[in-house]
Amino acid sequence: MLEMTFKALGEPTRLRILRLLADRELCVCDLEEILAINQPRISQHLKVLKQAGLVKERREAQRRICSFDREAFEQVFEEFNLYMKVPLNELPGFQDEYERMVNLDENTCEKKIRKKTSKKQ
Amino acid sequence: MLEMTFKALGEPTRLRILRLLADRELCVCDLEEILAINQPRISQHLKVLKQAGLVKERREAQRRICSFDREAFEQVFEEFNLYMKVPLNELPGFQDEYERMVNLDENTCEKKIRKKTSKKQ
DNA sequence: TTCGTATATAAGCATGAGCTTATAATAACA
DNA sequence: TGTTATTATAAGCTCATGCTTATATACGAA
């Protein structure tokens, strides 16, 4: 999920779309006109932004009116802070890494060298 | 710059590397061992993270010891907040968009329709 | 100077991502 | 029902990105 959000943000056109939606809600054809970009391109980027949870949409007749989902956005950054601060052994998907990291404590890059040189003696 | 940072964060292996570096500084060969990933792959990802300003490195003999640059990281998010909050017409690279957006005020999607239908009358 | 260790870089490949053009789907309306 | 407006999706292309293997570079130690 984190990855998805950052990937969505890591593209210039999507950043621009998001910036505009931060000002006010806009439908696809408004974005098309403001950014001077064709419709499929807008739609495709909006899809990515919606999947990442950064944009929400409301329907009105044929139009899909999009807006920046500020709450969801801030939640993502909560999630990221958690990811970076929670102890490694409590993070799902880091079990092996945790063990190898602990193991490294007695086997650091530097210490490995010392061991090898002492063996040779 | 914003784009670069988000792009760097939008990749699973790089996110993992960054997570580990948030715990403590590590050299390439440590990361190699902890993540069970080959050396060039680690180096290439570190390069991206360094270029994005998320990781800094210190040299010690042949080793490059990497760490998470928390300050630079937080600056990026300041920058992002600014980007999202500063008035559009003050944002470089949004001049045309600003004008077209203002113009849209009297020419919204809905209003355009009304105009067209009233013309027909 | 020669060798080993740590890291960077290059080349080649496969996959992914963004763009354009064309077409489909949906909804209001005559 | 047929037409128009709005948006979504598909196909094809090109370029970017990540991975692997092989090689180069930098540094220390013998």
Tell me what the structure shows.
- The structure is a homodimer of 121-residue chains.
- Chain A is mostly helical.
- In chain A, 65% of the residues lie in helices and 12% in strands.
- Chain A folds into 2 domains: 2-71, Orthogonal Bundle (Arc Repressor Mutant, subunit A); 88-120, no CATH class.
- A 3-stranded antiparallel β-sheet of chain A has the order 1-3-2.
- In chain A, a hairpin with a 2-residue loop joins strand 2 and strand 3.
- Residues 113-121 of chain A have low confidence and may be disordered.
- The interface between A and B is large, with 40 and 40 residues.
- Chain A binds a DNA duplex (30 and 30 nucleotides) through helix 4 and helix 7.
Task: Give a quick set of tags describing it.
homodimer, about 120 residues, mainly alpha, Arc Repressor Mutant, subunit A, 2 domains, about 65% helix, about 10% strand, disordered C terminus, DNA-binding
**Sequence of strands across the biggest β-sheet of chain A:** 1-3-2
Give the name of the CATH superfamily of the largest domain in chain A: Winged helix-like DNA-binding domain superfamily/Winged helix DNA-binding domain
Multimer state: homodimer
What is the CATH third-level topology name of the largest domain in chain A?
Answer: Arc Repressor Mutant, subunit A
Question: If you compute it from the alpha carbons, what radius of gyration of chain A comes out, rounded to the nearest whole angstrom?
Answer: 23 Å
* Chain pair forming the biggest interface: A-B, 40 and 40 residues
Number of domains of chain A: 2
First CA to last CA of chain A: what distance?
52 Å
Mean pLDDT of chain A: 88
Give the class-level CATH name of the largest domain in chain A.
Answer: Mainly Alpha
Number of helices of chain A: 7
Q: Structural class from helices and strands of chain A?
A: mainly alpha
- Total number of beta strands of chain A: 3
Outline the low-pLDDT stretches of chain A.
113-121
CATH architecture of the largest domain in chain A: Orthogonal Bundle
Name the beta content range of chain A.
5-15%
Helix-residue proportion of chain A: 55-70%
The main sheet of chain A comes to: 3 strands, antiparallel
